């Protein structure tokens, strides 16, 4: 049991580093960049509050676990802004190596379970992953609307690019959320 | 539905402010104070990883929801360091007013459900709340050990005070965690 606890606490201590991984998005009050740990908390709150937007078969408690874990690989691999230009194959290789190392800190049963949940999120095919990904995408537009542009301004994003990169996954998992956002986004991008 | 979504998104936007509520604890690397949003994410990860420490009848998914919500009242009421001296009645009144306002942003059904879950956590009597409170308490000692003292140094805390303020709730919900910590804490406080 002690070896098990040692491993679990080694993982939990390492996880503290996610609080120092900065995203391209900023807080609603524009005071600073958001980090991936507080982002993860916020989107779990989104998933719980907006659970009635989930499609048939979605299990919110599984979605919460998925979102709790979804960014831990960024401790090694960093955050890759959706509007940035990246070598997708290199990012995926870095994230797989990060998952090997980080989940590998855990006891084997938890390593397997967490890895499987993260892979399911990444694949974005199951009902739970589709909803989790829509929720993950919907938070930053709200922040950018609140703080006057945020990562859209920084990356010179057009409404059409936003539709393709963010609208598509949000509509796939939670269409009413994109309908709610669209007039607000149009008002921002039209001015 | 639109009014419902309006209310839900008003709550989620207001929740962003939890990222600016600073705690007395510091990150493991000692770089800055921790905020209550990233703390909430971290202890949810603790609860998931350390679920095998939970007593009979504990439902981890309920514990996760409880921990997701447990600090939102700090947006209005602020964080009250466990080693600080506070007027407990004043803190409770401020937190109740905060819960009125913040959960009151939500649709009535969610307001009632979230408020009930938060009150259950605060009461600390149900099996889920006892475990949630032990998990909430166990993260900061690990951070303080990592960063060389943190809030213990700042508040001039003795091992006996720590035993009473932190050890008691941790032992109540997850005794093996306190057993694991004790020799490490003694080594710190004895030097």
Describe this structure in words.
The structure is a homodimer of 191-residue chains. Chain A is mainly alpha-helical. In chain A, 68% of the residues lie in helices and 4% in strands. Chain A has a single domain (2-189), classed as Orthogonal Bundle (Hypothetical protein af1432). In chain A, strands 1-2 form a two-stranded antiparallel sheet. In chain A, strand 1 (22-26) and strand 2 form a beta hairpin. The N and C termini of chain A lie far apart (60 Å). The interface between A and B is large, with 47 and 47 residues.
Q: What is the helix tally of chain A?
A: 10
Would you tell me the structural class of the helices and strands of chain A?
A: mainly alpha
Assembly state of the chains shown: homodimer
Mean pLDDT of chain A: 95
Numbering strands along the chain, what is their spatial order in the largest sheet of chain A?
1-2
Order of helices and strands of chain A: HEEHHHHHHHHH
Q: Strand share of the residues of chain A?
A: under 5%
CATH class of chain A: Mainly Alpha
Most extensive interface: A-B, 47 and 47 residues
According to CATH, the homologous superfamily of chain A is Hypothetical protein af1432
Keywords (chains A, B): Hydrolase, Metal-binding
GO molecular function, one term (chains A, B): metal ion binding
InterPro entries (chains A, B): HD_domain, YfbR/HDDC2
Protein name (chains A, B): HD domain-containing protein
